[in-house]
Amino acid sequence: MNYHKRITVDPKIMVGKPVITGTRIPVEIIIKKLANDIDVAEILKDYPRLTREDVKAALLYTSELLGGGKIYDHHIA
Asked: What is the pTM of this model?
């Protein structure tokens, strides 16, 4: 999966935190919910604009960030 189109980092949105593109939902919130044993179905219920692919993109983005991989920022112009 290519997360690059699903994650946006823009200093004008949520002070530059990575968010799901087209939303103000930070990647951090998704990861925290998963870490607290909140399942994907409940996250999708709480945030109806999210998709399963968005949740997967958040996980992949975080994995690459922690693994030292190259992170691709997508800025809204």
From this structure: 0.83
